[in-house]
Amino acid sequence: MIKGLLERGITAHQLQTCLLRATESQRCEIVELLLRSGVPLSSLSLPVEPALQRCSFDILSLFLKYGWDINEEQEWCTPPLLSLAILTNPDPELVAWFLQHRADPNKACQIGTTPLSTAVYLASRTIIEMMLSVLCPNPKTQRLRGELLHMAACRADPEAASIVQLMLDLHPDVNARQWEQEPLAYATYKVTGLGTPLHCAARTGIPRVAQTLLEHGADVKICDTRGQTALQVAEAYGNTAVAEVLRER
């Protein structure tokens, strides 16, 4: 059937919908036939989300076989598909598959976010530790992009303080303003008020996170790009418990 469509002038690019339907129904033989026929592969055009939702490792392997670059950014502001895997289906087995096939947790898009920063913001500690374990030569000496400590401080779940401590164990600059080392991101987001991880904690409102950052040298006097201290941010967001912690310093 596919051969007949191609012979009648249908281009391989026009068969993208067929590839999507075959992926959704987990028809590996049709997926391979379409890919062999020249349906284009890119992180934007691949129907990868249904494969991620279903942990369709055979189909993901076919994408790799026919030329998918697992570390290609999705868009200028969206990191590679390991990030989408975490957003779509934060399953340790799925993340392990990506890592086993050389997905780079530290591969950034143009704006600076990475799959690892996505995980630090919302995935379990187990998944974060899996990703850190594959970084070479050593996550403590390698430049880790994506503002990991800031992302951890933005969490608002029971694991937040634990993830912040995990990031602090990598010895980041606890008083760095967010995105200062990523010019495009800094220029894009500075109007929103880019600050230190302590500013993120003040916005999120978890006292233990703020306390942990203070114990590691966070400076309460630093202002964000809108001229506000972390205390002013906490007060503006109505986070009175964090504000009280900050006043004590």
Automatic annotation (TrEMBL):
Domain of life: Eukaryota
ANK repeats (start-end): 196-225
Chain ranges passing through the membrane: none
Keyword entries, A-Z: ANK repeat
InterPro entries: Ankyrin_rpt, Ankyrin_rpt-contain_sf, Cul2-RING_E3_ligase_SR
Keyword Nucleotide-binding: no
Signal peptide: none
Name of the protein: Ankyrin
UniProt KW Ribonucleoprotein keyword: no
